[in-house]
Amino acid sequence: TLYPERFTRHFDVIFRGESDVTFPNFCRDYLDSGGRENFHSYLNLSAYPGIYVRKGTDVLAREPIHHERAILDALPVPDRSWGEHTQYHQFWLDRSGCKPATILLTRGCPFHCDFCSKPVFGSHFRTRSLAKIMDEVEDIKKYGYDQLWIADDCFTMDIDFIEQFCRCMVQRKAGVTWTCLARADMLTDKTIRLMRQAGCVQVYLGLESGDDETLRLMNKNTTVKTGVQAVYRLYREDIKCGAFFIVGYPGETRDSIEKTFNLALSLPLKEISFNVPFPLPGSALHARVSGLDANSDWDVENEAKFVFQSEFNQLWLKERIAITMCSFEAAKGNTKPF
User: Fold this and answer.
1) For residue 336, is pLDDT > 50?
2) Are 322 and 259 in contact (CB under 8 A)?
3) Please, are residues 177 and 201 in contact by the beta-carbon 8 Å criterion?
């Protein structure tokens, strides 16, 4: 979606944005055309929203597409009948004691965090109909899954929607637990209680930093205090909390990094993770870092490895992350006062 021209060396057609409708339509028409040799002449490529095609020096470039709710609600429940689910069940049972399946309830995120890139779903926030969502939940249960991983970028954006979803889960006695991502500044005591009643067992927060100035650099539009309050609200309702942190952000200091490590160890968190800034293409961060090579190793996002020129020593950060993680694991399970 971000730079389709890079892929036209290997692919005839690129689809940008949400291709739930465009791609299946293209596949049907492509098969009717008789194959690759005929499709350029047979198909009216400009009829496919979001398409990008290069033929010699000619380029057809359509803007990425983001569907309105009416189109999302017209989509069928994803087909999960494609194969054997037992290995997925067993993997997660061994790892976490449950059998989760992924589901998306909303699309889009209106926030503009400095490090974030959201080219596929974009900035326009949309919800799906609760009827369709509950149909999908029932379908997921049919295949033996007992937990939902709600993978939305901004699940807690619309409080009314969350509370309606929770009430549906309670009224229908859905019988599955669920986990989700959330913004710390959008969790109220009332909403969290309802989430717990509806089966929520863990929430992941992007706390990112223990320093307000660093949060400002990240354009998070929140504060350390707000994040701390959200963690304890979840803790009081017996919902586990995981937190993501970024250390070594351009413009921050060693002192602010240490504040982040200290914050992570001071809170009643079930899981924590630390990453160095990862300048995703399409993010504001990507546009302003230096020393970023187009051939950078993009396979290291879960490692403390800089893919741009940083003012921080990578080995020092790796060591501090390792020490903090060891301290966290040693103390995990201890109750923190609040």
Assistant:
1) no
2) no
3) yes
